[in-house]
Write a structure and sequence with these properties.
With 420 residues, the protein is mainly alpha-helical. It has two domains: 53-124 and 291-420, no CATH class; 127-283, no CATH class. The chain has helices spanning 15-27, 33-42, 53-56, 58-67, 73-90, 96-121, 126-146, 153-156, 180-200, 204-220, 223-238, 241-244, 248-266, 270-279, 284-289, 291-301, 335-361, 368-383, 390-400; strands spanning 157-159, 171-173.
Length: 420
Amino acid sequence: MDSIANSGAAHLDHPGEHSRRSLALDLSIHHYLPVAACYFFFNHAGLPNGLFYSTILSPLLFLWLYLNGRRWLTAKFLLLMSPFILAHFVMDIASPLYYLRSLFLLWTVYVTVYAFSWALLKSRGIDRLFDQLIALNFCVALFALATFPTPLRLLLWHDDSNTTLGTSHLFRLSLLASEPSVYAELMLPLVIFAALRLLKDNNKRSLAYLIMISIPLLLTQSFGGLSISLVGIVASFLTSYRRLLKRPRTLVISACLAIAVGALLVTPNPISERVAQVAAGGDSSTQSRTIYSFIAAYSVAAPKSLWWGVGLGQAKMVDVSDLGIGFTVGIIPNAVAGTFAELGIIGVIVRFAAELYLFFRTKVYLNSFRLAMFVAAFITQLTGSHLMDVQQYLMWCFAFLPFFPAMSLRSNSGTGVSPS
């Protein structure tokens, strides 16, 4: 089983030597930072909606995996999908071309997620990669703020006045992502990592990194990103409360963070106004990603088969404009609802069964970071994302694979499974 180095392990070096070694580690650029930065900032830049550079480059990733001994990936993928493929072709799907194209896109997601996860598992210093990505993201966010009065605002900020009732212009930071919620989803692992590290290692450096990742997340004004990250962190915190009771400094920091969040919500500011609008039902995007998505999914699947769904790629051919919920075709911005529409009830059952099995099989509950990521990924699939969202599957990998074995408030257990 692959594993990553325990970067939080204690050293027995002389304090001065240890400090110099830590500084050297901090100043060295992680060899995966260029790839991570391209995925984080440029994966969708200049491309039409629904197309990503990770999709275009997936055949090269597959070749790289093949040359490194991972030669049965496609066979495993087709074996996993074979019951659905057989059922859908027996039902006589509307467009075999759309089906095969969507099956290929799903394969590219599978290959991309596998390649990223396998590479990270074989790499050392993932915490350093996260730190550098946090710092780089913070600098880019500062650049977006500095250029807000310029025409670059149209490129780096999203005007939400057309989706939020009662506002003239609501600018939310999105950088080059398709929308602010997508950018917020990219930051979820970084936010959870920074917050839990601060609770475990109460020092100024950890606090600085949490502040650096929190500012861009707040600028997205993504209610989903903010609430999901908080729920994941709180869930991880609550499972370790007995251990934390023995660490007064951690409790003080937790109380300060809770007060800061409370103050942010009760004082007049764009974030609290955004939360109030979402809570009052004034944000159409939130409704579209939750309730309306399941209504549309049922309407798409019901005419063909509730059990097996309408088939991959077939939902976009179904006209649901008569539902009066703002959808024209069955393109559903919700991962579970999308699974229901195209893979049916059986697909949803398989999805949840796999998640619950891996939760206990990999002992997610023993590691605070992985537990928080599991909670975040579980909620994300019910409140947004889509069936072929690479980032969502990467979040599941962070939950089930042995990343950050030392990032635990309970123990240093790093139990997990690795791609095989």
